Amino acid sequence: MKAIVKTTAEPGAEVADVDIPTPGPRDALIRIEAASVCGTDLDIVRNWDAAAATWGSKLPMILGHECSATVVEIGDEVDEVSVGDVVVVETHIFCGECAACLNDARHNCLRMAIPGVSRDGVFAEYAVIPARSLYVVAPGVDPGLAALYEAAGVAAHATQRAGDVTGATVAVTGAGPVGLFLVAQLAAAGAGDIAVFEPEPTRRARAAELGATAFGPEESEPFLEFVRAHGKVAGADLAFDVSGAPPAYGLLFQALGKDSRLVSIGHMSTPLPVNISKDLNLRVLDWKGTFGRHIWSSWDIVDSLVRSGKLDLASFVVDELSLDELPGRLDEIGRLPGKVLVRP
Ligand SMILES: NC(=O)c1ccc[n+]([C@@H]2O[C@H](COP(=O)([O-])OP(=O)(O)OC[C@H]3O[C@@H](n4cnc5c(N)ncnc54)[C@H](O)[C@@H]3O)[C@@H](O)[C@H]2O)c1
Ligand SMILES: [Zn+2]
Ligand SMILES: [Zn+2]
């Protein structure tokens, strides 16, 4: 089968012909309907050593982690899915047996594996995935677009972490695909005014289309005035960082009101200095992190938004590529105002 494989630690990846993998007793062999490209894939292509240091990843490895697929074969012990089911892969492959898994925190499994990061991934015609890590998509949902459940589910988990968003004035830094999914879900959940701060003009335009008021790099003062004018106590009631950029926190700590909430989604590779008294204590800030999707409630949220028409996945697709086209297009993908689907 055709797959995109990383063979050396140097930046880059190539299309290769590899064997179709064989499922074990608790696995499913899935035929990929569509994969979607995420910033993590781009990081791994460019900076293999960092990924390998974090995850113990080994070369060669098939890249890609977000996908939808059809089950074509199952192992003898599988009862979670059937041949013919359309499924999406929960990329935090959990063991089901560790302390995290037994305490409703499978997204934080202590023995987690991630396709395309620590084991063979889904930029391929077929993949083998443990059946327990597959979410069956309801009939009627487009089998290709379902690949976007995974990234949309990150935003869903962040809204779960935030609690009630009804009527809240929200500040968001970063309108990449995850930030855009977040804006759409905040609007659908009845949030009040949503202010987005994002350097990339096409991403700002898309955030505005989804109901936010968008501000660019020269507009930090208008951004702050906006949330102070609309928020309950001298600033935004709620904020999300979806950039992972250290300067975004400087802005959010000015934007947040008293007794407010902050959810960090963006990953940051460097430590961030924080003024605990001023930014956290005196504000009585409720600051949370989030990782992956809560299994399976975040998936159910996305599924119900999609099926009720409140989340139009098709509108988030900015391009569709074949596996052959993908390696040559990786550089531009990180700036596009939505997701790129790969159809093997
Ligand atoms: N917590 C999780 O489980 C989880 C899951 C998926 C992705 N992530 C992380 O979430 C972040 C967003 O993911 P994405 O796929 O949308 O990535 P992305 O890189 O496409 O989006 C980040 C956006 O932030 C913008 N940005 C850069 N500097 C900024 C600043 N100072 N202020 C405001 N915006 C700024 C960029 O222009 C970009 O549009 C990334 O850091 C990613 O690694 C976290
Ligand atoms: Zn991803
Ligand atoms: Zn586990």
TrEMBL record:
Residues 177-300 form the Alcohol dehydrogenase-like C-terminal domain. InterPro entries: ADH-like_C (IPR013149), ADH-like_N (IPR013154), GroES-like_sf (IPR011032), NAD(P)-bd_dom_sf (IPR036291), Zn_alcohol_dh (IPR050129). Its cofactor is Zn(2+). Transmembrane segments: none annotated. Pfam families: ADH_N (PF08240), ADH_zinc_N (PF00107). Gene3D superfamilies: Medium-chain alcohol dehydrogenases, catalytic domain, NAD(P)-binding Rossmann-like Domain. Keywords: Oxidoreductase. It comes from the Bacteria. Residues 24-135 form the Alcohol dehydrogenase-like N-terminal domain. PANTHER family: L-THREONINE 3-DEHYDROGENASE. This is L-threonine 3-dehydrogenase. It comes from Microbacterium sediminicola.
